[in-house]
Each structure stands twice: as structure tokens, then as C-alpha cells.
Design a protein that fits this description.
- The protein is mainly α.
- Helix content is 41%, strand content 7%.
- The strands form two sheets. The chain has a three-stranded parallel beta sheet, with helices on both faces. Strands 1-2 form a two-stranded antiparallel sheet.
- 34% of the residues are buried.
Length: 244
């Protein structure tokens, strides 16, 4: 197999095409690729069929708007704790959520198929994309949340070149910080965007920065959104990531 993967344009002893598990690199610390399923292989289909047979779609109650103030207060109180959590710990939470979600792929795919009537291929891809987003933002959190020295001003003496001076001669450092509570609403046809950035779903771009969120499933299927929210929130404070 390795010989077949060697490019004829690059006659090297090792393949120039990375295998799926190391698609993003084989070096230490490289982000893991999500695991897919070959639906033509019976042993890979059987867990999906078993999950479909045992999956029920419960009714998701509508949120009572009278509870809006208390929901915001709970998220704001949790924000004070979550925003002070070390970025490495928050990144660990996201990676743990990704691993948990991947382990439950059959159950989540069955819910996507039964509730939203998606194809199996689309369901598998949707769960995989959610896993990839969680791992991607965990890596990005550890990268961008580190203090960054501001650019140096021209004309700094060589002896001071290792320092980052501002316009008035002081050393300036840029640090990103959380802004507060976010309300996130996912699109009706892609509930697993709870794992994407911005005001889409649970908004883990916010969580990597230490913000808390209230997730709303929007119109359409809501059970899978609720399950996604619970799965992604493992390790967060109970009120840091809530659906409702």
C-alpha cells in the first residue's frame, strides 16, 4: 500500500500522500483528523443501524421567555469563573468534547437521520465536521490567547532589538480577553454548528476565549441541537454552556 501511495513525481521512500488519521500532520502536537465511516462496509454500518433502531425523538419544549432574565444571570455568574480558567484547560475541554462526540457517532448520526431525515453520508459528515471544529478551536485557543508583543518602532538601537517598544518607548503587549455572555442560534438545517464560531450554536470560538453562551436551536429539529450542546459542554461549568 505504501508503495502505491508514493508519487511518481517524488520518488521517495515515504508516501507523499498522508493517510487520513494524520491528514493535518504526523508531528507531535498535530491536530487529529476525525474518523470517518465507509458505509459500504457492513461492520461499519451495523452500529448505525442498531443506533437507529433504538433512537427515539423526544419532544423539545419551547423556552419560556419569562425565564430569560434568570438564564442570563446564571450564564453571567458562570462567566466570572469560566473566563478565569486557564486557556490550556479550556482547550482540554474542547478536545474532550470532540473525543466524546466521536465516540457517540452512531447515536448522533441516528438522531440526525431520524429527526432531520438526513442521509447517512450527510449525518456522518456533519458529526465529523463538528469534531474537527472542536479540535481546531482548541488548537487556535492555545495559539492566539497567548500574550503577543506589539511590533517594534523603527529606529530602535540594535542593543534593544529584542524588546517590543510602543510609540512612547514603553513595552506593549496585546492580550485577548473574554467579553461576556453570548446568545447563539444555529441554522435549522445544521444543528451541529453549535460547535462553530461566532453566533452560531454554542459558539466555541467564544468558549475558547473564556466567554459563556446560551444556545438556541432555532426553528426545526431541536433534539440533535440539545444533544450537541450537552456533548460539547462536557467539562464546562454547568451554566457556561446551556441550551434553551
Amino acid at each position: 500500500m505504501q508503495e502505491l501511495l508514493i508519487s511518481p513525481l517524488r520518488l521517495e521512500p515515504h508516501s507523499s500522500l498522508p493517510l487520513p488519521p494524520v491528514l493535518f500532520g504526523a508531528h507531535a502536537g498535530a491536530r487529529k483528523n476525525s474518523t470517518g465511516l465507509d458505509l459500504t462496509v457492513p461492520t461499519m454500518r451495523e452500529p448505525l443501524m442498531a443506533a437507529l433502531a433504538s433512537t427515539t425523538v423526544p419532544v423539545v419544549p419551547e423556552f419560556n421567555t419569562q425565564n430569560t432574565a434568570s438564564a442570563f444571570a446564571a450564564a453571567h455568574a458562570s462567566y466570572k469563573q469560566w473566563s478565569k480558567t486557564a486557556v490550556a484547560e479550556r482547550a482540554t475541554v474542547l478536545r474532550r468534547a470532540a473525543d466524546t462526540m466521536l465516540e457517540q457517532t452512531p447515536a448522533f448520526c441516528a438522531l440526525l437521520v431520524k429527526e432531520a431525515h438526513k442521509t447517512w453520508g450527510d449525518a456522518v459528515s456533519e458529526v465529523r465536521e463538528a469534531v474537527d471544529f472542536l479540535r481546531y478551536y482548541a488548537d487556535e485557543a492555545e495559539r492566539i490567547m497567548q500574550p503577543m508583543a506589539m511590533p517594534q518602532v523603527h529606529g530602535v538601537p540594535p542593543a534593544l532589538a529584542s524588546y517590543a517598544f510602543g510609540v512612547t518607548g514603553e513595552t506593549n503587549t496585546l492580550s485577548l480577553t473574554a467579553r461576556g455572555v453570548w446568545v447563539c442560534i444555529s441554522p435549522w438545517n445544521f444543528r451541529w454548528l453549535f460547535c462553530r464560531p461566532g453566533c452560531r450554536g454554542l459558539g466555541h470560538r467564544q468558549h475558547r476565549a473564556g466567554q459563556t453562551g446560551r444556545a438556541n436551536a432555532g426553528r426545526g429539529p431541536g433534539c440533535r441541537a440539545t444533544d450537541a450542546c450537552r456533548g460539547c459542554a462536557c467539562g464546562c461549568p454547568p451554566t457556561a454552556a446551556r441550551c434553551g
